[in-house]
TrEMBL record:
Gene Ontology biological process terms from the UniProt entry: cell morphogenesis; cell wall organization; lipid A biosynthetic process; peptidoglycan biosynthetic process; regulation of cell shape; UDP-N-acetylglucosamine biosynthetic process
Organism: Rubrobacter marinus
Span list, region Pyrophosphorylase: 1-232
Record: active site: H365
HAMAP family with a match to the protein in the record: GlmU (MF_01631)
Gene that encodes the chain: glmU
Main EC class the enzyme belongs to: transferase
Lineage: Bacteria, Bacillati, Actinomycetota, Rubrobacteria, Rubrobacterales
InterPro entries associated with the record: Bifunctional_GlmU (IPR005882), GlmU-like (IPR050065), GlmU_C_LbH (IPR038009), Hexapep (IPR001451), MobA-like_NTP_Trfase (IPR025877), Nucleotide-diphossugar_trans (IPR029044), Trimer_LpxA-like_sf (IPR011004)
Name of the protein: Bifunctional protein GlmU
Pathway: Nucleotide-sugar biosynthesis; UDP-N-acetyl-alpha-D-glucosamine biosynthesis; N-acetyl-alpha-D-glucosamine 1-phosphate from alpha-D-glucosamine 6-phosphate (route II): step 2/2; Nucleotide-sugar biosynthesis; UDP-N-acetyl-alpha-D-glucosamine biosynthesis; UDP-N-acetyl-alpha-D-glucosamine from N-acetyl-alpha-D-glucosamine 1-phosphate: step 1/1; Bacterial outer membrane biogenesis; LPS lipid A biosynthesis
GO molecular function, one term: UDP-N-acetylglucosamine diphosphorylase activity
Cofactor(s) listed: Mg(2+)
Transmembrane regions listed in the UniProt entry: none
Length: 474
């Protein structure tokens, strides 16, 4: 190894461009792949290499891009997007006085791996050259610069400037480089913008370095990583590849995914072993699934926690918590602030918002429950709803342990239903019901002591049996 390549490592991610081929109002690098902004994949691939400083060149929608960057990276502003060479000039200004190796990667290359970047750095150091460029042989090189290599000089011709003969070359530039800082500084001082686009090309600096101090190529081992994202079709392809990697990792860790083709799990999701994910399921954001759960089919969970042994079928969760052994669905909607305690149930066609459903309690079907606290062992009959909004305020409902509501009961908040109380079918409750009382009517009034409920059977695993019993009157 020569003296070149022995210094510290610095990294730059080029993320200033608009991405016109995306036909989007959003900067290209902000488009997500499996829930993660595209630019953050490149940053993550650089992390294991031990860069002293990692910079992200921002320009178009700079503030929005900066907002999604992980901690520890430095945004540097390219005021005018005047090409990749101009972006590197901005980086060099930020690295004034530093010496070492500069790794340059594109923010629109989400499939690049840390292993490939390590290969690029290793090739650069072993060759002892001023510049090394990562290249790939592709059957379809559309949109990529073609690589011409001859006796230590590497020349790259952008597709828009290429001749027909040059466009037939299959060796392409992937936009990833290793430069010695002293060489790239000198070369950038000689680069102009004499091309059809009037831009400063980083590839011109590569050719200059090759003539002065030699440049080499590093051939990509895994062609799949060469997939850059320039339009929506390429975005979909990249997401398909990343999604399959995520699914494979979960399956190897002990998760059963019945149909990987129809299952979408974002990169940030955690799943415990022996959980089964059924077809058509979407798990997104900060969702965490415990062990021995069944999720799906056709469930969509965002930022939702599902604890061990729970089941979510044909349902939607947004910022909710499903406790151990609880069941949800089919066709229910858990909104933010909802917590289902152990072995509780939210059944078919229910919407639950900002509510605690106590251990063993049931909201079996056709209910809206909002801003409510339900105690343990309560049962809400079909069609029970909480009228929590009075046109100005969201008011709370409290339902005590062991309470029972008949079908089509309306609870007009704020209201309390006492422990062990019964509400007759069709009751409209706008006043508190004392513990242990039976209330009926519209508006409901307490008329006698509530009937005793026969305790439901409990399964060996501690879950309450699904059979509902009305019990006998005292």
């Amino acid at each position: 190894m020569s003296e070149r390549g022995r210094g510290p490592i610095f990294s730059a991610v080029l993320a200033a461009g608009k991405g016109t081929r995306m036909k989007s109002n959003r900067a290209k690098v902000l488009h997500t792949i499996c829930g993660v902004p595209m630019v953050n994949y490149a940053i993550a691939a650089l992390e294991p290499l031990g860069s002293q400083r990692t910079m992200v060149v921002v320009g178009h929608q700079a503030e929005e891009v900066e907002a999604v960057l992980p901690g520890g990276v430095e945004p540097v502003l390219q005021k005018q997007q005047n090409g990749t060479g101009d972006a590197v000039r901005v980086v060099l200004e930020a690295l004034e006085g530093e010496e070492g190796t500069l790794l340059v990667v594109n923010g629109d290359g989400p499939l690049i791996s840390d292993a490939t970047l390590a290969d690029l750095l290793g090739r650069h150091r072993e060759a002892g050259v001023g510049a090394t460029v990562l290249v790939a042989e592709l059957d379809d090189a559309t949109g990529l610069g073609r690589v011409m290599e001859d006796a230590g000089v590497v020349r790259i011709v952008e597709e828009r400037d290429a001749t027909e003969a040059e466009k037939r070359v299959r060796l392409v530039n992937l936009g990833l480089y290793a430069f010695e800082l002293r060489d790239i500084r000198r070369a950038m001082g000689l680069v102009g913008s004499e091309n059809d686009q009037g831009e400063v090309y980083l590839t011109d600096a590569l050719e200059i370095i090759g003539r002065e101090s030699r440049a080499v190529t590093c051939l990509l081992k895994n062609p799949q990583e060469a997939n850059l994202v320039n339009d929506r079709a390429q975005l979909a392809l990249a997401e398909e590849i990343v999604r399959r990697k995520i699914l494979d990792a979960h399956m190897r860790a002990g998760v059963t995914v019945r149909d990987p083709v129809s299952t979408h799990i974002e990169a940030t999701v955690e799943i415990g072993r022996d959980t089964v994910i059924l077809p058509g399921t979407f798990l997104r954001g900060a969702t965490r699934i415990g062990s021995d759960c069944v999720i799906g089919p056709s469930s969509d969970l965002l930022d939702t926690v599902v604890e061990d042994g729970a089941t979510v079928e044909h349902s939607v969760g947004r910022g909710a918590e499903v406790g151990p052994g609880a069941t949800v669905g089919p066709y229910s909607y858990l909104r933010p602030g909802t917590r289902l305690e152990d072995a509780s149930k939210v059944g078919a066609f229910c919407e639950v918002k900002n509510t605690v459903v106590g251990a063993g309690s049931k909201v079996p079907h056709l209910s809206y429950v909002g801003d409510t606290t339900i105690g343990e062992g309560a049962n809400l009959g079909a069609g029970t709803i909480t009228a929590n909004y009075d046109g100005k305020n969201k008011n709370r409902t409290e339902i005590g342990d062991g309470a029972f509501t008949g079908v089509n009961t309306s609870l007009i908040a704020p209201v309390k239903v006492g422990e062990g109380s019964y509400l007759g079918a069709g009751s409209v409750v706008n006043k508190d019901v004392p513990p242990g009382k039976l209330a009926v009517g519209m508006p409901a009034r307490a008329i006698r002591n509530a009937p005793h409920r026969v305790k439901e059977d409990t399964n060996v695993d501690g879950r309450v049996d699904g059979t509902e019993t009305e019990g006998k009157r005292a």
